[in-house]
Amino acid sequence: MDKEMISKINRFTRREFQEDELYIFSVILCDNEIDRDYECFSDNALEKLKSLFVGKTGIFDHNTSTSNQNARIFDTEIITDTERTTKDGKPYKYLRAMAYMVRTDENRNLISEIDAGIKKEVSISCSAAKKVCSVCGNDKSAGKCSHIKGRSYNGRICHVILNDITDAYEWSFVAVPAQVNAGVTKKFTEESTEKSANMETAEIDRELRRDIRRLAFFRGGRTAAETVEISSRGMNTSQLIRLKKAYENLTGRKGIEVQLIPENMKEQTGVYKI
Questions:
Q1: Is the distance from CB of 193 to CB of 2 less than 8 angstroms?
Q2: For residue 271, what pLDDT band results from cuts at 50, 70 and 90?
Q3: For the chain, which terminus, N or C, has the lower number of CB atoms within 10 Å?
Q4: Angle subtended at Cα 149 by Cα 146 and Cα 151, rounded to the nearest 5 degrees
């Protein structure tokens, strides 16, 4: 943990905290992929969320009680994965945040659960002023579009692009988030302060191996998980991705499922919990 990182955290504290008092982890908040409800964020929306989420608190299950606060975001960045595209063929981008917690006796179990991958999936709550139809480009919230999400028009699947973000409220640990890739990416360590391409690849590989071990456990128990842990050590990123997909097909499970709040609630409130 470098001095710059500590300085960013201490912008939100009433006194100067030291490294050994803090627990830091990174989390993917959202991305530009089309989700199960045929919605996605625009690049401009991700940029807006990038600035809005700095300083936002982390809670559980979107319960906005003060006692439910457990972490705070102190830095954000947008990352483009040049080797991956979205369902509509765009370069895959995601918003990653760095969050901190103060180490206490009360949150010791929560920290252990984050490290163990039990508390992983997250969901964000924000407002979007525009819902642009991917087929005609009109704003669906203005009632100027009759296309139906999920239907094919001239070979193109209709989806809604969320744009003009007006506010970001909070991010939550949840059991079933809206976006497939949203969640804690890894435990923060000193080695991860170097933002090099090699470190990014190593981080992705560690996350893939962890998911593969978990899926193998669902498939065949502890023995299967231990076996695949050993066999995956020499695999590169592409091989790990293929192996993970194979286990997902075998088990019928994925790392994270997708679920949005009901359509009528979105229309009434304008709030998206994603």
A1: yes
A2: low
A3: N
A4: 95
How crowded is residue 130: how many other Cβ atoms within 10 Å of its Cβ?
A: 19
Distance CA 133, CA 8 (A): 38
Nearest CA to 180 among 118, 99, 87?
A: 87
Taking the C-alpha atoms of residue 97 and residue 126, their distance in angstroms, rounded to an integer, is: 15
- Residue 260 amino acid letter: L
Distant-in-sequence, close-in-space partners of 254: CB < 8 Å, separation ≥ 6: 180, 248
Nearest of 267, 252, 164 to residue 215 by alpha carbon: 252
Return the half-sphere exposure (C-beta side, CA atoms, 13 A cut-off) of residue 103: 10
- Rounded Cα gap, residues 161 and 170, in angstroms: 21
203 φψ region: left (φ > 0), alpha (ψ -120 to 50), beta (else):
alpha
Pairing mode, strands 39-41 and 22-31 = unpaired
CA triple 94-193-48, angle to 5 deg: 30
Token pair listed for 131: 């819902």
Span 242-254, average pLDDT: 78
Assess contact for 109 and 32: CB atoms under 8 A: no
pLDDT of residue 127: 87
Contacts of residue 194, defined as CB under 8 A and 6 or more positions apart, other chains included, come to none
**3-class DSSP string for the chain:** CCHHHHHHHHCCCCCCCCHHHEEEEEEEEEECCCCCCCEEECHHHHHHHHHHCCCCEEEECCCCCHHHCCEEEEEEEEEEEEEEECCCCCEEEEEEEEEEEECCCCCHHHHHHHHCCCCCEEEEEEEEEEEEECCCCCEHHHCCCCCCCCCEECCEECCEEEEEEEEEEEEEECCCCCCCCCEEEEECCHHHHCCCHHHHHHHHHHHHHHHHHHHHHHHHHHHHHHHHHHHCCCCCHHHHHHHHHHHHHHHCCCCCCCCCCCHHHHHHHCEEEC
